[in-house]
Amino acid sequence: MTASAPPPAPPLSAIARAVNVSKIYGSGEAEVRALDNISVEFGTSQFTAIMGPSGSGKSTLLHCLAGLDRVTSGQIYLGDIDLSGCSEKELTLIRRDRIGFVFQAYNLIPTLNAAENITLPMALAGKKPEPAWYEQIVRTVRLADRLKHRPNELSGGQQQRVAVARALVSRPDLMFADEPTGNLDSKSGAEILSFMQGAVRDLHQTIVMVTHDPNAAGYADRVVFLADGKIVDEMLQPTADSVLDRMKSLGE
Amino acid sequence: MWKVTIKGILAHKIRFLLTGVAVILGVSFIAGTLVLTATINKTFDGLFTNIYANTDAAVRQKAQFNVAFGAGRGRLDDSVIPVVRTTSGVSEAAGIIQGLAQLIDKKNEALNKGQGAPALGFAWIKERDLSSFHLTNVKGEKESRAPVAPNEIVIDKHTADKTKYKVGDTIPVLTKNGRANYQLVGIAKFGNADSLLGATAVIFTHDTAAKVLGQPGKVDEILVKADSGVSQAQVVRNIKKSLAGRKNVEVLTGAQITKENQNDIKTALGFFNTFLLVFGVIALLVGSFIIFNTFSIIVAQRSREMALLRAIGAKSGQVVRSVLFEAALVGVVASVIGFVAGVLLAVLLKGLLAALGVDIPASGITIPTNALVWSFIVGMGVTVIAAVFPAIRASRIPPIAALQQVGADQSAGSWKRIVAGLLVTGIGIAFLLSGLFGGGGNALQSVGFGAFVIFIGIAVLGPTIARPISAVLGWPIRRVKGITGLLAEENAKRNPKRTSATAAALMIGVALVALITVFGASASASVNATIDKSMKADYIITTEGFGNGTLPRTLEPQLRKTPGVTLVSGVQSGFVKIKGSVTNALGVDPKVVGSLFDLEVSQGDLQALQLDGLAVSKTKADDENLKVGQKVTVQFAQTGRRIFTVQAIYDQTAVPSYVISSAAFKQNFPDVFDAQIYLKTEGGPTPQNRAAIEKTMKTYPSGKVQDQAQFKAAQSKQINQLLNLVKALLLFAIFIALFGIANTLGLSIIERTRELGLMRAVGMTRRQVRSLVRWEAVIIALLGAFLGIVIGVGFGWALVKALSSQGIKVFEAAPDQLILIFVFAAIFGVVAAIWPARKASKLDVLQSISTE
Predict the structure, then answer these.
(1) What's the number of domains chain B is made of?
(2) From the CA of B511, how many Å to the nearest CA of chain A?
(3) Strand residues in B176-278 grouped as ranges (E)
(4) Residues B735 and B685 in one domain
(5) What ipTM describes this predicted complex?
């Protein structure tokens, strides 16, 4: 985060929207409202962090937005497609062609090398990445000399960089990251976060990241705070300190 | 995590089932075989007890040599009958005559001319208590009565029903004396059954039977009923006393002859029994690979749990026992199910035999104790033994592993493994070759053991070759299927031990099928080559019948008179004893044989073969050190010892090792038929010539006219018929291996849940997941097929080399059929993948990616 960063643009054109979304597990006495009538929008070329204490529903929201999980009520829009009306197969193809993923761990297929892992979603679609874009991504995440290595020959930070490259290589509408730095040391974590920041700023990608780490949230353009399945606050242009303060106040 | 655990337990049910299936199928085969043979044995025991119920003694010639169905025993002079009949203590005595007699039905077809139940002829026995046949009346027909006039016959009820012949009809019958018409005067049952196990029976008067079945003035055997109050032993003593002057005659008690017949059947069925048991053993061998693999995978997957047990203080012995206990549990359950399935299989097979016309008299299924005992010994033994290595491996998991991430076992080849594998394979090859080429009494056991050891050796080597071969096999799949193909290939390569053990199970079945294929193709090719090279006849008349052919000797002169036929010669075949061993000898007409079939005489003169002349094959002559001019004793069942002189030595390997003249054959085999008749015609094989021959053959419907091409095809068909049966049984072993592939993949999918979830998350469709699993299965199957084909062709080559002196001189690898096996293996892989592929594609994405 530097002072010269441009001011965050308000979400002019929302690429993803949750409209009155609820997600309920169980029923009756055992009913758990993971998401409670949430509405939220995510703009293009924006880096949004979703924060909240564990059990706040932040991962559930991410899963629903990404077409990995289904909502109990409400709609999720990706562009103008209503995900809640999509079949299992349509969701799979949307994930493949329009969404990128970075998980906390186990992001890579152990039998494929770094290059093959990066191009996996495109290969599944029977497509080839645009050479220039691929080059740019690989250069950005500094993996050029590691492409022939298998995951078990890469460090944790390198593995996550491969995952970020995979998530970006197909120019997705939206990239989701679920605690992408959760398993990394702070140096590698900072590296990954600046790549993500760079992808939004320089390559005009859109990223939604779930994290509980105020430092990580400090890299975002916007932070959405969740608690008990509801959006409780929002912050633009966050810094690690301001996020930490807000977290404290939410915790009180 | 909970849901995953529950899913794991549910998956275990199927896993247990699949693991068990291998054992169940093997055990059921063994139990089924034991139950079936016990049932058949009991049926025959009952049959003979029934036949000889009133027989207290039997008088017959001593056997010249022992060979199946008493073919080594001469006939008895019927002058013995009155002597026996007047012996004190004898109530009744009857001469028995049995031979071949073919009924011809209303469509002029000979009955039972194939390879199934025989066409038999008997003499009617007036003494009711000593006769197995009893007259029965059919509603709406004239009353049955015994044959009295020379042209009167009785037939069995089953045949009468089948042919719709009625009492009073005139029926043509073929015997060694040719075709003749007889008057049907009665229908008879055999004991309580309608027929003698599906054989057709024509019953003549005693004198006619002696003429057309045996020899006038002779009987096969005399059966005796004692006076009441006289014991079997007593009446035998009395008869022995009154026959004291006669040489070569033996007297047995009724109990002895019953027992002897029962034992003969048991021996004859023993082959069948062994044959089926071998397949049971093969099935279990395949099964043991699957069990070994399953437990290895289970142990690997539970290594954390095992390590935890060790960490909290379980001794390594306790871990071993816990795994073996689980194996024993699988073994017990599988043995029980296998045993029950085996009994059902026996019922099914019995039904099948009945459907094929082998009419086993109605009686329940006999379940011998040994079937139950063996089911458990084999089922549990195989399971527990196969689990020993995995159990030991489990006990070696260090407690610290409980705290560590356990990676997949990617180890493939160590030098130790390669050396051990090569050593074991080498020992197996040594046993195989010594069995094939060394000869000796235990040749078969040595070959079987050698093959078994080779399989083990290749299985040991498997992991070192699994990766490179998978890469080669996976290449086209990768090219066609892209990323799913690549992932499938990588998955097949990632755990070489597992892949190769799974493939090894398939390898065994495929190797044996490939062996049979190569052997069959080589045998056919050799026969074809021999016919091309040596056959000079334009037409060959053959029969498929029981024993040594059923073409009456009266046919040859008929053919000689047929227009267009320039040369005719019948060939006879029968058992003789020479140089201490019982063997088949061939009878030919020495004057003309050279113009019909080239025996490739290398020494002496076959054309000048005399009545006491013997021609010997080169191989036999070398083995027995026989030279032209040497005297050899030949022992015949009916005529005893005769001195022959070696007058020719021939190189032809496609015929028996000894040849005598047809004239000598007729002298020493009074009831001989022609096995085949060779013909040469004016202008070669033409439609006119064939029509003329067929016209003559109308009188002899048991024979088939074949030109050289048809003869070749028939010979190949005969070879392949038997081999196809063997292949069908081997399919069973391949079938078991399919369960192994399904099981391994199912278990691998549990391990790869996380990975599959990730792939689904980043956009792999369910169809692509299924394709991924399917192609991995195909690669494993092709790996097994490849190894199997290599081994099978190797075995086949060795076998063909070993049998070159038996006439199999051409090695034919039959590449088209081997490719077909390969293609089928790929299809089997696809089939085996159905269940695991479904399972993999149904994984819940969200749960999978949150699985640790």
Answers:
(1) 3
(2) 31
(3) 178-190, 200-204, 218-219, 221-226, 249-253
(4) no
(5) 0.86
